[in-house]
């Protein structure tokens, strides 16, 4: 294990989450406007929305097997970027990290009330 790699718990079917979650994934950045690129691991904390809000954002595209998260203020780095799909949505509770979901998609990245969507994970 390291500061970048650690174990994570799968939540039970009845476990509920609220508040902030950590998202992480890889982005590509150019170095000094050259043709060289570097891959960076990025992470940020975003807010979970309740399922009613998620349904209003995505309507029929949102299922009970999904969870969504983002910023109410918008214009923030929110994990809705290439390289984040398939990445974790995690939350620490009492010193244990739980895999809340796996990032699947997001529309209009970084804008107000346009959260990312993740498939819920359950044990």
UniProtKB/TrEMBL annotation:
Matching Pfam families: Trypsin (PF00089)
Record-annotated Peptidase S1 domain positions: 2-120
GO BP: any one term: proteolysis
GO CC term, one of those recorded: extracellular space
Cellular compartment(s): Secreted
Keywords, sorted A to Z: Hydrolase, Membrane, Protease, Secreted, Serine protease, Transmembrane
Entries under SUPFAM superfamilies matching the protein: Trypsin-like serine proteases
Primary residence: secreted
Alphabetized InterPro entries for the sequence: Peptidase_S1_PA, Peptidase_S1_PA_chymotrypsin, Serine_Proteases_S1, Trypsin_dom
Example of a GO MF term: serine-type endopeptidase activity
Listed name of the protein: Transmembrane protease serine 11A-like protein
Organism for this UniProt entry: Leptotrombidium deliense
């Amino acid at each position: 294990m390291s500061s970048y790699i650690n174990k994570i718990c799968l939540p039970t079917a009845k476990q509920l989450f609220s508040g902030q979650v950590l998202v992480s994934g890889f982005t590509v950045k150019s170095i000094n406007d050259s043709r060289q690129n570097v891959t960076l691991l990025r992470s940020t904390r975003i807010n979970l929305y309740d399922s009613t809000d998620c349904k209003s954002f995505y309507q029929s595209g949102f299922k009970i097997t999904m969870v969504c998260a983002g910023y109410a203020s918008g214009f923030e780095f929110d994990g809705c970027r290439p390289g984040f799909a398939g990445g974790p949505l995690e939350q620490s509770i009492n010193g244990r990290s739980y895999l809340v979901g796996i990032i699947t998609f997001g529309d209009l990245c970084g804008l107000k009330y346009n959260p990312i969507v993740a498939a819920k994970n359950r044990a």
